[in-house]
Amino acid sequence: MKQVAILAYDGVAFFELACAVELFALPRPEFANWYQSRVVTFDHTDLTSTAGIGLRTEVVDSLANVDLLLIPSWPVRQNQIPQRVSEAVCNLHKQGKQILSFCSGAFLLGYLGLLNGRKATTHWRYADLFQELFPSVQYQHDVLYVMHQDIGCSAGSAAAIDLGLEQIRQDFGLEMANTVAQRLVMSPHRKGGQSQFVAAPMPKQYNPISPILDWATSHISSPFTVADMAAQASMSRRSFDRHFRQHVGCSPKQWLIGQRIDHARQLLQETGFDIERVAGHSGFESATALRHHFRQQLGVSPRQYRDQFGH
């Protein structure tokens, strides 16, 4: 069972702390295997978070036996890091353990020098200061999060959820990450400069388009078109497009490509199919079409995706 520590300190950002707790410390009896998480602090005084909310956490002197450390936030101007925090985080990093920072939490990693030569990001309002303070970091603009080897950084408050879901996907797979996303009622598409998202399940609420969504997902390996979906719904193309946007929130073409990409991602992760076969089983007309849409939506090629996430 993976041991998780969520770092708190006096003045920690409450929302980001709550995101870490919701993602990693919430009991999930539906899973046989899950994280064992603690909220910890190195401060031997009473803690308050933003808005003066009091916190009761576990006081520790080290991060021994921790597999994953979450840093919800950090004061952007606090470059004098308490020695116990510095030693514990650096020792954890030397052991090759995973570290995730949410929003301004990247500043702690920057001050400790752990991001030098790496890709990283933080909230856009801190971007100029971050780059000024840490010129050796390869700062990434316009992304929701960055995962570079054993360190991940989210771009802002809500993007912490996207980064956390990606960590869950890496640890437990796409299906469990989707289950967590569904419980959070996450949107299926969260776009930064590139589309970085865990494919969330379709909404459970019934609407007139629901049967067509079910039909389409059950036939996703077949090369049908939006016109075929409209015919299946016994609607004209124009009427179908209008109803689809009204009930789903995007065009049917966007939705269909997204579903095909999701299916291709799963095949790339779980099978040894070559790219042509993945394309065929995902309903794309060719491997070229798959590569085009894959790079357009995810910012990487199918082969790069498999190299990073395949098993």
In short:
The chain is α/β, with parallel strands linked by helices. 44% of the residues lie in helices and 12% in strands. It has 2 domains: 3-184, Rossmann fold, CATH 3.40.50; 210-309, Homeodomain-like (Arc Repressor Mutant, subunit A, Orthogonal Bundle), CATH 1.10.10.60.
- The strand count comes to 11
Alpha carbon gyration radius: 21 Å
CATH H-level homologous superfamily name of the largest domain: Class I glutamine amidotransferase (GATase) domain
**SS-based structural class?**
alpha/beta
CATH architecture of the largest domain: 3-Layer(aba) Sandwich
**CATH topology name of the largest domain:** Rossmann fold
Broad shape? elongated
Mean pLDDT: 88
CATH C-level label of the largest domain: Alpha Beta
**How are helices and strands ordered from N to C?**
EHEEEEEHEHEHEEEHHHHHHHHH
**Count of all domains:** 2
Q: Which bin fits the share of residues in helices?
A: 40-55%
What distance separates the N and C termini?
20 Å
Organism: Arenicella chitinivorans
Protein name: Transcriptional regulator FtrA
InterPro entries: Class_I_gatase-like, DJ-1/PfpI, Homeodomain-like_sf, HTH_AraC, INH-QAR
GO molecular function: DNA-binding transcription factor activity; sequence-specific DNA binding
